[in-house]
Amino acid sequence: MKGMTNKNQKTIQIFDTTLRDGEQTPGVSLTTDDKIEIANQLSKLGVDIIEAGFPSSSEGERKVVKDIAKLGLTSKICALSRATKKDIDAALDCNVDLIHVFIPTSEVQMKYAVNLTPEQVMKSAVESIEYVKDHGVKCEFSPMDATRSEIGFLKKICMAAQNSGANSINIPDTVGIMIPKTTAKLIEDIKSVVTVPISIHCHDDFGMAVANSLAAVEAGASQIHVSVNGLGERAGNASLEEAVTALHVIYKYKTNINTRLLYSTSRMVSSLTGISVQVNKAIVGENAFSHESGIHTRGVTEKPLTFEPISPELVGRTRKLVAGKLAGTRGIKAELEEIGIHPNETQLSEIVKRVKELGDKGKTVTDADLIALTSAVMGEVIGEEKIVDLCDMAVVTGIKVIPTASVRLTLDGKEHIAAETGVGPVDAVLKAIQKLTSNLEKIRLSEYRLEAITGGSNAVAEVIIKVEDEKGNIFSARAAREDIVMASVEAMINGINKCLLKNRKGIKK
Ligand code: KIV
Ligand code: ZN
């Protein structure tokens, strides 16, 4: 990282396509409300341009783009359009700030995707850009599949786009076949024939979308197309959070992004799209700021720089020390101290021994396991700190009965009762618990897994859950019982207690 300083502190424009290319992620379909919620968040996050959708694709899409354009957000709103009058009219009807006109320029796509000759493509591009500009709206032009286009034709169409009034030219690596070296060379080539700002739109088919976007910036592109969590067609687009963090931390460039909102934005998009983020994904993955091995936990507690190239706070995260078979005494001690548990030397070495034993058996040691085994080693000390405790519960289910649960809990020692219905007894009982505990803090169930069911109908069921507080901190917990409903209740209460305990002590996860 040393030496990667940038004296000019260039500001890179962030063009977000979560609501357009991101929505093309197989399996993703967002409602109008979802899109408006995401648009609001993207604007808060500080993206310069939001590509809100493709108005000509359906009436519903046109309405959403219109609604987003009406929100009066700080971000500029863009609509995608093919190079046809009909498409552009649909985009113009949405009152957007910018229209993104695209047409294929590679031989294979001109012939097989749109069945046009290069001359027809050139004519449509020029006429479309002029049409947008005649309506007083800004225009970004994309020669689709630019990276597989014949370079002479590509340069010619970019020059023609500039002459027709395009405000910027975006270079799509539509099928993600570039590497940083070829990307940089292509951007230099295009920059040698046009003077308007150059943008890049990279797909991640070879896992190089972010690296290629950064290479384009190094070569002189002033804007990158990105999407939250890297959503998009096939393997997706360049991930906003990765590209932006690299621009800030490695390149020392500026963007208008408030990096502290990166994690909460990622969580929101993941929950609304239903596409979960892989645990080891950079910046926003659950493990991105977790440390397990003894040498790592010791290092980061002594000096974060040892194993943290990015400060977790910069991207809205907190550090997590994980107990596991590689964990060291120091890491486990620090993790327990975070939640206000202070074992003595003998107790600590016994806790470490048990954690390692569990790890050696191939078991993932969750925070709940650590608390449970610490509790066992230290007696009832931790139990006394329970904020939420179960007194009683009952569930009813059947063919003609709506599954219903009633729950009696103590919250800070006071008894409360609630009843809820659900799609099944587990859903009903977990809803009833959340209803009661929302009096203390809004904590929602973000993941539920049933595992390790072996044998007959009296087999032990293991429930693993994750709960999430309002700040996006996630706490995992588990419980194992022969009764699935009871295991679910125990796991949920464990998770809620962990979350409340940590938040009350004012200590970050
Ligand atoms: O990947 C691509 O080429 C696109 C265009 C519409 C710019 O998404
Ligand atoms: Zn794309």
Characterise the protein shown here.
The protein is of the alpha/beta class and 509 residues long. The chain folds into three domains: 261 residues, Aldolase class I (TIM Barrel, Alpha-Beta Barrel); 90 residues, no CATH class; 116 residues, Double Stranded RNA Binding Domain (2-Layer Sandwich), CATH 3.30.160.270. It has 16 helices and 16 strands. An eight-stranded parallel β-barrel has the order 1-2-3-4-5-6-7-8, surrounded by eight helices. It has a three-stranded antiparallel beta sheet with strand order 11-12-13. Strands 14-15-16 form a three-stranded antiparallel beta sheet. A hairpin with a 7-residue loop joins strand 11 and strand 12. The two termini are 28 Å apart. About 1% of the residues have low confidence. 3-methyl-2-oxobutanoic acid binds next to strand 5.
Ligands in the model, by name, code or SMILES, are: 3-methyl-2-oxobutanoic acid, zinc ion
Largest beta sheet: what is the strand line-up?
Answer: 1-2-3-4-5-6-7-8
In the CATH hierarchy, what is the class of the largest domain? Answer: Alpha Beta
Question: What is the rounded distance between the termini?
Answer: 28 Å
- The total strand number stands at 16
| Number of spatially distinct domains | 3
**Could you say which overall geometry the principal axes of the C-alpha atoms support?**
elongated
State the helical fraction.
25-40%
Structural class: alpha/beta
Name the average pLDDT.
Answer: 89
The CATH H-level homologous superfamily of the largest domain: Aldolase class I
| Uncertain stretches of 5 or more adjacent residues | 380-384
Architecture of the largest domain, according to CATH? Alpha-Beta Barrel
CATH topology heading of the largest domain: TIM Barrel
| Number of helical regions | 16
- Summarize the biggest pleated sheet: 8 strands, parallel, barrel
Q: State which percent range the strand residues make up.
A: 15-25%
Radius of gyration over all CA atoms, rounded: 27 Å
